[in-house]
Amino acid sequence: MLTIREIVQLKQVIRQWRQRLSCQPGEVATVPAGYVPLYVGLEGKRFVVPARFLKLPVFVDLLKRAEVEYGFEQAGGLAIPCDSDFFQWVVDALRRNQASFGQLSFDELHDLFSRHCDAGPCNATTPAA
């Protein structure tokens, strides 16, 4: 019998493959040199981020979480266990001002993000540096 964790992992893999298969025939999901594709959250939303981000504390934390959650034997692309809205906010903040936000950990950025969210669905904007 499958555990809940295994069911969630299978669901994520299925969503990722559905997204990849939904491309039009002949359409190639290209990734520019110096960038890496990541699949984020339960919905497997695809992000293409600069490879240099992977050495930043927040990404190191996220990669450690991915290791714990999924292990090293992931099918398909690199999946990140993170809310996609938060991840988008982090990427936007880093693109806007890596010097200010690049040294913050996952927890520090999450606290900052939480302060910008309403009680309902989060519509946070990228913070000013």
UniProtKB/TrEMBL annotation:
GO terms (BP aspect): response to auxin
Pfam family, one: Auxin_inducible
InterPro entries (alphabetical): SAUR_fam
Family: Belongs to the ARG7 family.
Protein name (record): (wild Malaysian banana) hypothetical protein
